[in-house]
Structures are given as C-alpha cells and as structure tokens.
UniProtKB/TrEMBL annotation:
Keyword field: Coiled coil, Membrane, Peptide transport, Protein transport, Symport, Transmembrane, Transmembrane helix, Transport
TM region(s), chain numbering: 48-72, 84-103, 115-135, 141-162, 183-205, 217-236, 298-316, 331-352, 364-382, 550-573, 634-655, 661-683
Gene3D superfamilies, sorted: MFS general substrate transporter like domains
Location of the protein in the cell: Membrane
UniProt main location, coarse: membrane
Entry's Gene Ontology BP terms: peptide transport
Region (Disordered) location: 1-22, 753-787
Name listed for the protein in its UniProt record: Solute carrier family 15 member 2
Recorded name of the encoding gene: LOC100091642
InterPro entries: MFS_trans_sf, POT_fam
Organism (species): Ornithorhynchus anatinus (Duckbill platypus)
Length: 787
C-alpha cells in the first residue's frame, strides 16, 4: 500500500505553477544494490565460523601434504606401508563423520560437539609433533605417537566436518534460503583458499628450515597446530552471536525403532481385507508421531538419492592421474575454484536467473556430473594422443620385447635359442652401445626359459634366463674378468604416474655406492652390477647428484629428467670426485603441451563447483531439523565410497589408462541419467511438509465437517427428543384434561344422579303423604316415566 500523500509509481506529476501542463517523466538510472542490513547481520554472525573453518582447513592440509614424505624420509618406513597408512587415515576422516554427526544431533548439540572435536584435534597435533622430535626415533615409540595422533585427528576431522557445516546453516532463518546458499559458496571459497595457502607455505617451511640436521617436519606440524589453536579461539569468540539448536535426543535409535516397527506392523497386517497405506512407513503411525515419520521418510528419500553420487567423486579423486605434476595438481584445483566460485555466483547463476531458467539444486548437480564426464573424455583423448607419440608399441598376448645394451670392451653378437633352434640373432653391437630397436620374443606359455648365446672375438658364453610374456627386458652385457657375462633387467612398460620421471641405477663399480636424491636418505646399490628400484623424481636438471663411494664423496651429472620419461643410469668410474654415467632412455618423455591439459581441469573444477557447493546447501536444506549433521555426514561419506569404486576398477588393472578414463566417463553419464530420473520424482522436504500440512488441513476440515455433521445430527436428535417429549407432554396434558373432563362429567353425572335420586326421594315422600290417583297407581304417571 502506498503511503498517504505519495503519488503512484506511474503517475505524472503536475506542479502548482505549471498551468496544468504535465511534466515529462524522468526515468532514473538503475543503481547498484547495497548490502542490506540482513546481509550485514548474517556476515557479522557467521564471520567467526568462516574464519575458523578457513584456518582449520589450512592446518589440516598443511599437515596432510607432508604426511607420506614424513613417513618415508623421516622415519624411513616402507613406501607401501606409508601409502597404506595415509589412505587409511583419509578414509577414517570420512568414516568418522557419521559418529560426529550422531554425537552432535543426539547428545551434545552442534556447538558443544565442535568444541570437543577441536580439543581432540589439538591433542592429535601434539602427538604428531612429539613423533618428529629426536628422542622419538626408533621402532615402537614413533609408531605409537603417530598412531594415537592420527586417530585423534581422524576422529576430530570426521566430527568437525558435518558439525561446522550444519551449524553454519543453522545461523540462517528459513525465509533466507538464497542468502544461505550464497554464504555456503563463500564457505567453500574460503576452504579452498586455506588449502591453497597451506600447500604453498607448508612445504617451504619444511624444506628451507632445518631441524636437527634434517628437514623440519616438527616446525611444519607445529605451525599447523598453532593455526588450529587460533581457529579454535576464533570459533569460541563468536559464541554470543550464534544460534545454538538443542540436541534432539538419540535420533538414530528412534529412527531405527520407527523403521523396525513399521516393517513388523506391515508384515502382521498382510491380509487383503486390511486397507493399504500410502507409504510403508505409515504403518508406524500406531506408535510414533507423524512428525517423526515424516522425518524418517525424508531421510530415506535422501539416502536413495545419494546412491549415485559416489561415482562423481570416483572421477573427481582421479584428477591426479592427469599428466600435470602432483604439486601442480594440488595447487591448480583450489586455484581454479577461487576463480570459478565467484564467477558462478556473481555471473553465471544471475544470468541464468535473468533468462527465467529454474536451475534447481538437482539440476546443478546433474550439470556438474556431465562436466566431470566431459573432463574425463577430454583426458582420454589427450592420453591417446600422448601414447601415440611417446608410448611403446602395445604388447601382444604371447610376446615380450628385448633390447641389448653392451657395456663390454668389444663388439658382441647375441643369439636367442629356444630348444635346438635359433629364435633370433642380433646385429653386432659395439662397445658402450645398445641395439637400435627392441626385438620380439614369441613365448609358448606364461613364462619360458630362454638360452642366450653371446659371441665376442671368437669366445662364446651361454646363459639361461626366465622370460615372462607381455614384459619389456634389457639384456646388459659386461666384462667379467677375461670373459663376458650378462644381466637381464625387467623394464617399466608404462609411463610413471602424475607426469614424474622414473630412474633406475646400475652399479658397474667393484664397491658399493650410496646416492643421495633430494633431501631423502641415501640409496645403497651393491657392487658388481647390482641395481636399484625405480625412483620417481620431478622434472628438472640434475647436474650434481651427491654420491659416496669407498674413496669419499662424489657427484655425478644426470642431466635432464623429463616429464613421463623412464631412464636406466649405468654408473661408470670417472675420477675420485666425479663419476661418469651412461643414461639410457627406455620410455621417451611427454611431448604434448601442458596447455592441452587446462580444459580438462577447468571442466572438472567447474563440475566440482556446481556439484559440491550445491550438495552442501542441498543436504542442509533437505534435512529435517533433527538430522542436519547426519545428512551432512552421509553426503561426505559418498566421497569415501567414490574412493572404493576407484580401488575396485582401477586396481584391477585390466584396462589401459585412456580406456579406464572412457569407462569412468561412461559410467558417470549412466549414473547421471539415473540421478536425473530420481531427481525428477524426488519430493523436496519443504514440499513434503507442505503436502503433509495440506493433508492435515484437509483432514482437519473433514474432521470438522464430520464433527459439524455429528453435531447437527445430535441437535436433530435432541430436537426430535424435545419434540417427542413435548408431544408426550401434550398428550399427557390432553389425557389429564380428558381425565379431568371425564371426572368433571362423572362428578356432574353423579351429582345429577344424586339430585335425581334426591328428587325421586322427595317425590316419593310427597306421594306418600298424598295418595296417588287410581289411574296413576295403575298405569303410572306418564310424565314421570318420561322423565
């Protein structure tokens, strides 16, 4: 309603002195909308949570990025054991989310539960810091400290993740849904900003500062712990502004009992004569309130809707398989998120809204899945192009490949014999040379013993080697005293993961040698053509690699180790301080430009923004008030389920990399279609509540109408009773009147009878006094007889 005295919006103003002439309407330019008091109010309220989550994520990823290196290089643990511990730790962080959510929703409440998890978090960092001090060196003590520390951190992270997200959503009122969605995007933005900063700063602290003569892991862990402490203090500082929802009791037990009673009650009432109910959970209505049944229905709908979601995370967690270096991958993803989140929130989403397109949360998540599938399709195309340029020829089922490397002083010719026939004869290979190509070896089974005959200057040497099919080998020929001998090395037949270079060392010296790669421990290689395992290294020039021989310290020049290349380095004697090496490239480096990999990262990150950010708000909005944290934890557990899918498919190793990419893309597209169909029939929580309210209103109206009808019937019955009573009273009155009239008539008749008798008596008395005439005595008095 317009204010009193105000002109309508479309009215033309006429000033008093204008002579009645209308003035031209002036259209004002649109102005930039300033933040409303509601936005400022929410910003002041949730700023404590935003800053604390930003710092908590910085602390976690600052520790997480160093964990595997800490196990391998500081405590000298086996690489496989270190990787297994790391993956178990990450899986536990997602697994314990359900425990944290149950504690928050059922017992302590979200705020108090978050404080408890923070305390466990800090204790875990203290144990981890103690494990990096010199006195903890050994076997049992560091494992105990690390085990306790990582367990506490896993519990804390699993508890904080759903609690802070749900507690963040609790600060917004129900009518400010759009405001809550925008602030969830800000939360996701700050999380990735913390990840980016920690991944850039923590490795620098570890590498540039030494503690006890080694990389300072303790300082890095201590810095992350200090950041976590500040996060804890900031979170507690805003307690006076927070909206703290009380816990709802042991909801998990209530939900389980409600489901159990509904199923058992349905089984007890299987008769066709009993009318069916709309939903199977409605069979719990005899014992549980309708509000709880509604919440359980919402939970079941969300659980069914979440079934396809792990496939998205299965693809997303494999972006490390793209060719960019690992540290670049870890930095590139949060960096792109920092760009794309504002772009979507301030540009793309408002533009779509202006086009009057209803982009619901489920539609956003579907588009995110499609973008992820496109990213892996692009990755498969790039992988195919890369293999055409750099990979070896694909192996046939019954073949193996062999190259010959001659370290002997003279020319050598090799003959491979199977049984009594010569299988192949190589061309003569000069000293310190290798064959120009790989020779094909045809095998009759999974493996076969093959005889190698070496001829050099009239001397012949024979040796048997066991050859397995579908493998790549290098036959190394070297001088052994006055004769020649040979060594069979199995080569890598695939490029190293994550764009790293792989190098293996062969020690041709007569003494052991120690090689120092990076800041890790030395690699010991035995004498007389012993060889090391493959070591993965980042791309770079390695001009002065430190080593140590029996005569003292030395260096060797490895040159450039390029992206995706595989090298075998033969260590030869040069001088006391500088060793000579012969580096053989068995798999060539990648030659595709790194710019070809940018589109797939943009697509997968855009898919993450549309999928992950939306799932935060969607999980909160669709959860009943008593299950906010539980549904957040279930949404986060889909990430762990995605990792399980990766392990099942990828670890089988049945497909090459590009085919595996295409398989995952096709699976995600299929899941996307299923998710779209499920989303089409999905009933949102607000709509379900509205439907229930309408049903309750209709039921109330029906009950009211029934009550009114019953009341009318009762009134009619009362009226009938009243009318019947009145009739009875009227009949009684009539009877009484008739009885009274009859009594009066009877009384009158009796009086008349008495009077007649009296009259007769009087007449008799008179007649007795006066004799009647004779005719009267004989015939009677006619007049008297008439009377």
């Amino acid at each position: 309603m317009a204010a009193v005295g105000a002109a309508p919006a479309d009215a033309t103003m006429v000033p008093p002195d204008s002579g009645g002439k209308q003035m031209e309407t002036v259209t004002q330019e649109p102005f930039v909308k300033k933040p409303s008091w509601v936005e400022i109010h929410y910003l002041l309220k949730v700023s404590y949570i935003l800053i604390s989550v930003f710092m908590e994520r910085s602390a976690f990823f600052g520790m997480n990025v160093l964990l595997t290196l800490y196990f391998v290089r500081f405590h000298h643990w086996n690489e496989n054991l270190s990787t297994a511990i790391y993956h178990a730790f990450i899986g536990s962080c997602y697994l314990y989310t359900i425990v944290g959510a149950m504690v928050a929703d059922s017992w302590l409440g979200k705020y108090k539960a978050t404080l408890v998890w923070y305390i466990l978090y800090l204790l875990g960092f203290i144990f981890l810091l103690l494990s990096s001090l010199p006195f903890s060196r050994g076997q049992a003590l560091p494992k105990l400290l690390i085990g306790v520390g990582l367990t506490l951190i896993a519990f804390a992270v699993g508890g904080i993740k759903p609690c802070t997200t749900a507690f963040f959503g609790d600060q917004f009122q129900e009518e400010h849904v759009e405001m809550r969605r925008k602030f969830f995007a800000v939360l996701y933005f700050l999380i990735n900003l913390g990840v980016l900063i920690s991944m850039c700063v923590t490795p620098v602290i570890k590498k540039d500062i030494e503690c006890f003569g080694k990389d300072c892991y303790g300082l890095a862990f201590g810095a992350s712990g200090a950041i976590l402490l500040f996060s804890f203090i900031i979170f507690m500082s805003g307690q006076s502004r927070y909206v703290k929802s009380p816990p709802e009791g042991n909801m998990l037990v209530k939900v389980c009992k409600c489901i159990q009673f509904a199923l058992s009650n349905r089984l007890r009432n299987r008769s066709r004569q009993i009318p069916k109910r709309e939903h199977w959970l409605d069979w719990a209505a005899e014992q549980y309130p309708m509000q709880l049944i509604m919440e359980v229905k919402a939970l079941m709908r969300m659980l069914v809707l979440y079934i396809p979601l792990p496939m998205f995370w299965a693809l997303f967690d494999q972006q490390g398989l793209f060719v960019i270096k690992p540290d670049q991958v870890q930095i590139l993803n949060p960096f792109l998120i920092l760009i794309l989140v504002p772009m979507f929130e301030l540009g793309i989403y408002p533009l779509i809204k202006m086009c009057q397109i209803n982009l619901t949360p489920i539609r956003k998540m579907v588009i995110g899945m499609v973008l992820a599938a496109l990213a892996f399709t692009v990755a498969a195309v790039i992988e195919i192009q890369m293999h055409e340029v750099t990979e070896m020829t694909p192996l046939d089922y019954n073949k193996s490949y062999l190259q010959i490397i001659n370290l002997a002083r003279n020319e050598v010719q090799v003959t491979v014999q199977q049984g009594e026939r010569d299988f192949l004869t190589s061309e003569p290979i000069g000293a310190l040379q290798k064959s120009f190509h790989y020779y094909k070896l045809y095998l009759e089974g999974k493996h076969q013993s093959v005889r190698f005959v070496l001829k050099s200057q009239g001397a012949t040497t024979e040796k048997y080697h066991d050859i397995k099919r579908r493998k790549w080998y290098s036959l190394v020929i070297y001088t052994a005293g006055a004769n020649i001998s040979n060594l069979l090395l199995e080569e890598m037949n695939a490029k190293p993961a994550n764009g790293l270079a792989a190098v293996r060392f062969v020690n041709t010296l007569k003494k052991d040698i120690h090689i120092f790669l990076g800041s890790g421990d030395a690699i010991r290689i035995g004498k007389n053509y012993k060889f090391s395992d493959y070591q993965t290294m980042e791309r770079g020039e390695y001009k002065q690699v430190r080593c140590k021989t029996w005569v003292g310290a030395c260096t060797m020049d490895l040159g450039l180790l390029d992206f995706g290349a595989v090298y075998t380095v033969f260590i030869l004697w040069g001088s006391r301080s500088i060793l000579r090496v012969w580096k053989i490239n068995t798999i060539p480096p990648n030659h595709l430009s790194i710019l070809w990999q940018v589109p797939q990262y943009v697509l997968i990150t855009a898919g993450e923004v549309m999928f992950s950010v939306t799932s935060f708000d969607f999980s909160y909005a669709e959860a009943p008030a008593s299950m906010k944290s539980v549904l957040q934890s279930i949404a986060m557990m889909t990430v762990a389920m995605g990792n399980v899918i990766v392990l099942i498919i990828a670890e089988a190793g049945l497909l090459v990399q590009w085919a595996e990419f295409l398989l995952f893309a096709c699976l995600l597209l299929g899941v996307c279609i299923v998710f779209s169909i499920m989303g089409y029939y999905y009933v949102p929580w607000a709509k379900a509540q509205q439907m229930v309210r309408e049903e309750q209103e209709q039921q109330a109206q029906r009950e009211q109408q029934q009550a009114q009808k019953e009341q009318q019937q009762e009134q009619w019955w009362e009226q009938q009773q009243q009318r019947r009573w009145e009739q009875q009273q009227h009949w009684k009155q009539k009877q009484q009147e008739q009885r009274a009239r009859w009594q009066r008539q009877q009384k009158q008749w009796e009086q008349e009878q008495l009077e007649r008798e009296k009259w007769q008596q009087q007449d008799g008395d008179r007649e007795g006094e006066k004799p009647a005439p004779a005719q009267d005595r004989e015939g009677g008095n006619l007049d008297l007889d008439k009377q």
